[in-house]
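Journal club prep — side note

Before the paper discussion, L.F. wants everyone to see what a predicted structure for a comparable chain looks like in token form. Sequence:
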Amino acid sequence: MTTQSLKEQTPDLRVGYGQDCHRLQAEYPLILGGVRIDFELGLVGHSDADVLLHAITDALLGAAGLGDIGEMFPNTDPQWKGADSRKLLQTAFAEVQQAGWQILNLDCTISAERPKLASYKPQIRKSVAETLQLDEQQVNIKAKTGERVGPVGRQEAMTADAVVLLRR
């Protein structure tokens, strides 16, 4: 089989992975997936520090071969200070779409010792799906604790991971 015929038979799919971590601190808002969550600690960052949307943004950009969130929205640029991460994600997704890609599915994990996120997962899923103009069935949100181990377990930080499958 020639290289050309193999390429013609292979579906144009790409997988992207994103990960993000932000410190927790009092007097900051806690926003996950575009949803504000009532909690005594919030995430610290240059933008609104939405760790989930940052991981999703990196997954999308990586799958499309378009770099990463830090290249597109550098934390040294004052225009992104306090930015709504939904806007950052929408801007990055527009670039991904312009490059000819569409999302097939998105699978995400938020790691946080507290607050317990089970009751927020449907709202976060809906928010992410709406932000990306997807059906909710294309988005999955999981939540894990740190089992009192490491920065997540000690409630010093939250992390998020995202995996996306794109099709041209």
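L.F.'s comment for the group: Strands lie at 13-26, 30-32, 35-37, 41-43, 102-111, 139-144, 157-167. Keep this in mind when we get to the figures.
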